[in-house]
Design brief:
It contains two helices and 15 strands. The protein is mostly beta strands and about 425 residues long. The strands form three sheets. Strands 2, 3, 6, 7, 10, 13 and 15 form a seven-stranded antiparallel beta sheet that branches.
């Protein structure tokens, strides 16, 4: 049978319909296939979830629902619309009041007596009904580094003697658990001309909910950072910070402006999120070599004195006197006896003979024994020489203990600011 032109056209439509409907077709005998209504279209894709509400800005509303998916484009019935996206979570931090000034230390924004000083925390100290409010906190590493503050002439002076290698800080706590200050661009405060940081580094830190330990104040000011333990909570969770002045550099008077973009180093969130702020910290860090040191090294130690003067002679030079006494016997005895006189010569016709001469006198008396000679006196030993001073000479002016960093900084007009 010869097929007409019109029949060929109908067969072509059937093949197209099979391809579009993705169904099995038996085209063995096209003359028996009658086109019917198209198959139901494939359902459209689900709509994307709505974007979560932004964490900054005013108290954010939930994100809008996602747009439904478009109907299926297949010939025949349309596909069902996609499901709407879930809304974003709102920012629950307290919105910053219209006044960006925290305090100018006047009686209207600061609750302390003129010329008063203190070093323990006050829960309600600064701000008023038109602005953010809060108290203060003191902290340090070692007890001797503890800071204090003094109110005078509507300014506040922070003082501390920070030990070498230690730190100390003063903090403005916000009374709300967290504050949404996203309408602001940064923090500003004035530094007066009589300020010094004594060779310390001055950093400003911004406490924020994402980096505050969940274990620090779980009842009143819970943070979102979960530390490994309470003992390590302030090492595991860190606030973003910026350096105002480095060690060895004097602090210049004037207004200090710190944009939120200047802060970094927070853990686990590095940058400042101004929609969840909790506190401001002024922190002073003294280097290991301490405060300002006078140039030049310490004097060398003096040499020790001579160990001892030379002793005198060990004994007098002369030996003891002669061991023997004087002559042991008197002088030599006298002559034994006088010799007998010679007989007289017979005188002629005279007497018969001259008398004999008298015998010589008896032996001479013994000489008196000489007195024993006194022993020669021993020479007195020479006195020992005085020993030389043994102590070392005094050292130079250098000190073995590094001096502290003596901090005295006066501030005024603490405020958030907006870039216009």
């Amino acid at each position: 049978m010869t097929r007409t032109k019109s029949r060929i056209g109908a067969s072509a439509l059937v093949f197209v319909g099979c391809a579009l409907a993705v169904v099995a077709c038996d085209v063995g005998d096209t003359s028996t296939i009658i086109p019917s209504g198209g198959a139901s279209g494939v359902a459209g894709q689900s709509g994307s979830a709505g974007r979560a509400g932004a964490g900054i800005g005013g108290n954010s509303t939930a994100g809008g629902a996602g747009t439904a998916g478009s109907a299926g484009s297949v010939i025949g019935g349309g596909g069902g619309g996609g499901a709407g996206g879930a809304g974003g979570a709102p920012n629950n931090c307290t919105k910053l009041p219209n006044s960006l000034l925290l305090t100018d230390f006047s009686p209207t924004t600061f609750k302390a007596a003129e010329n008063s000083s203190w070093k323990t925390s006050k829960a309600d100290l600064w701000g008023n009904s038109d602005s953010l409010t809060g108290g203060d906190v003191f902290y340090q590493g070692k007890a001797e580094s503890a800071p204090s503050v003094t109110l005078h002439n509507q300014t506040l002076t922070i003082t501390a003697s920070v030990a070498a290698g230690d730190y100390a800080g003063y903090m403005f706590n916000f009374k709300p658990a967290c504050t949404n200050a996203s309408i602001s661009n940064g923090l500003a405060f004035d530094v007066l001309s009589d300020s010094t940081v004594g060779n310390a580094t001055l950093k400003v830190q911004m406490q924020q909910k994402s980096d505050y330990p969940s274990t620090a104040n779980p009842g009143s000011r819970p943070g979102d950072c979960v530390p490994s333990s309470v003992a390590t909570q302030y090492n595991d969770c860190l606030s973003p910070a910026t350096t105002v002045v480095s060690s060895g550099t004097p602090i210049a008077p004037g207004t200090v402006k710190l944009p939120w973009t200047a802060f970094a180093g927070g853990v686990p969130v590095s940058a400042v999120d101004s929609g969840q702020l909790m506190a401001i910290q002024w922190q002073f860090e003294c280097p290991p070599d301490g405060g300002t040191i006078v140039s030049g090294t310490g004097g060398s130690g003096g040499s020790g004195g001579s160990s001892g003067g030379a002793g005198g002679s060990s004994a007098g030079g002369a030996t003891a006197g002669g061991d023997t006494g004087g002559v042991s016997a008197g002088g030599a005895g006298g002559s034994n006896a006088g010799t007998s006189g010679d007989p007289g010569v017979a005188g002629s016709g005279g007497s018969s003979a001259g008398s004999g001469g008298n015998a010589g006198s008896d032996a001479g008396s013994g000489g008196t024994a000489g007195s024993s000679g006194s022993a020669g006196s021993s020479t007195t030993a020479g006195s020992g020489g005085t020993s030389g001073a043994n102590s070392a000479g005094s050292g130079g002016s250098g000190s073995s203990t590094p001096p502290p960093c003596v901090v005295s900084i006066t501030i005024d007009n603490v405020a958030f600011y907006q870039t216009r």
